[in-house]
Write a structure and sequence with these properties.
Helix content is about 30%, strand content about 15%. It is of the alpha+beta class.
């Protein structure tokens, strides 16, 4: 359907996951969109291509079970809302146990092709490095954590708020053919096989075992490694707890990694028949199965030392790296103070925000806020009521958190989690048993989401 000539376009700034999703939701409602993406004219330190929705860190969108996992519930809600991001993820899916991992290039290509082919979307490769002009009377800023400097300063001045910031780290990727399978083996924790693939019945992850002496030597190497030195203006920027560099985790105690990304629970070394002292897991990173990333191994260690240290891991002694770990600085606004519940900037309502810049953390959380921003902007453009999703849904819980549920004074990036949802009780008003709680919250969420979609004009288009 071609957009009516009387409908003015909505401008979406930023072609990441949130911007692509926002543009798609607007276009599907019949509203013309101009999507501005600065790449390839201006690249960032984290991006490698000019594709829309490029994944710059992990290739995992995390757990995909809607009954027991809050992110899985968010996935399902987005699917039901016609998400272009989830459609692309399902097309580019890779084996990853119960997680939704994707071939990052196929994923980006699928989003790029869909968005560029849509009759209601015009993609412009240009840089928006200042406050959008007044004639852009409806704008969604989905510039992400790497917002161009001039625009970031303009937002800061307009809102009267300093930006908060954190560092986000990138994990290394190795070539599968260089992994020693006399030592490493395929297995998912507790032999769990997800919908992404069976991998010949072997399990979806490659596991590299460490005994106590190997583990402690590895920790010592991490702690003594030379790391990236930050610029003066970055020195006081905190890390996001959900994406800590591995050497930072190691500094918190010798066993921290054994209870984190290197935990051996649910795994058995076929050479010994026993659970190892610690395990490094690798997850498939592309559809061909030639690349695997080190799960949870984001790092700021200098490149040369990364190669030396990671080759200490049994099975990776001769590993060749397709990409080493890295670090970039992310920024986000104090959304509870600056945004209303329609994601509009209180100081300038023609501006909406979407994605990671709003203070949500995670690929799908960012895309979810883009989905809502797109639908809200479409409803506004079409003269329909803007109806936020119920707080009982994953979409509504995220929206509520960043637009008032969180404390403005201590606001930090947040993944979706069941702690953001209203409590649920049985028919007698008493709390449910622990094992019943998550499935009940999810069932309530999906029921309320479907009601919202049927009743809200802005949510009706799929």
């Amino acid at each position: 359907m071609s957009p009516a000539m009387t409908i003015r376009p909505v401008h979406v700034v930023g072609g990441g996951l949130a911007g692509s999703e926002a543009a798609w939701q607007l276009a599907e409602r019949g509203v013309p969109v101009v999507l501005h993406e600065m790449r390839p004219g201006r690249q960032t330190d984290a991006h490698e291509t000019d594709g829309l929705a490029e994944l710059v860190c992990s290739n995992s969108l995390r757990g995909d079970n809607p009954e027991t996992n809050a992110i899985g519930l968010l996935h399902e809600e987005m699917r039901r809302c016609g998400s272009v991001i989830m459609a692309a993820a399902d097309r580019a899916r890779l084996p990853a146990g119960g997680a939704l991992a994707v071939d990052r290039h196929r994923f980006s290509d699928a989003v790029t092709e869909a968005v560029q082919a849509h009759a209601n979307i015009t993609v412009r490769r240009d840089v928006v490095d200042e406050l959008p002009p007044p004639e852009w009377d409806s704008v969604i800023l989905a510039t992400g954590p790497l917002t161009a400097g001039g625009l970031a300063r303009a937002i800061q001045e307009l809102g009267g708020e300093s930006h908060l910031a954190f560092f986000d780290a990138i994990a290394p990727i190795v070539y599968r053919e260089t992994i020693d399978f006399d030592v490493a083996w395929f297995q998912s924790r507790y032999d769990k096989v997800g919908p992404g693939g069976e991998n010949g019945g072997q399990g979806d992850y490659i596991n590299c075992p460490l005994d106590k002496a190997q583990y402690e030597a590895f920790i010592d190497a991490l702690l003594s490694a030379e790391t990236t030195q930050f610029k003066t203006w970055e020195a006081d920027t905190p890390y996001f707890e959900g994406c800590l560099p591995i050497e930072v985790m190691a500094s918190r105690g010798v066993d921290t990694l054994r209870h984190g990304p290197m935990k051996p629970v649910g795994l058995t070394d076929p050479r010994t028949g026993k659970r190892p002292h610690a395990v490094v897991q690798l997850r498939q990173d592309n559809a061909l199965g030639t690349l695997y990333n080190l799960v949870g191994f984001q790092t700021k260690i200098r490149y040369k030392q990364q190669t030396e240290i990671f080759r200490m891991i049994p099975g990776l002694e001769n590993a060749a790296f397709a990409r080493l770990g890295g670090l970039h600085r992310n920024t986000f606004i104090n959304a509870p103070r600056l945004l209303d519940d329609h994601l509009r900037m209180r100081a300038c309502p023609r501006l909406r925000f979407a994605g990671q810049i709003t203070g949500v953390e995670g690929y799908c959380e960012s895309a979810a806020i883009g989905l809502l921003a797109g639908r809200f902007a479409a409803a506004e453009r079409l003269g329909e009521p803007v109806v936020p999703p119920p707080a009982t849904t994953a979409l509504g819980a995220l929206l509520g958190h960043i637009t008032g549920g969180a404390e403005a004074e201590t606001f930090q990036p947040m993944n979706v989690n069941f702690g953001l949802f209203p409590p649920i009780t049985n028919d007698k008003g008493k709390p449910l048993k622990k094992k019943e709680r998550k499935p009940a919250i999810s069932a309530r969420a999906l029921g309320d989401l479907d009601t919202w979609r049927q009743q809200s004009p802005a949510a009706a288009a799929e």
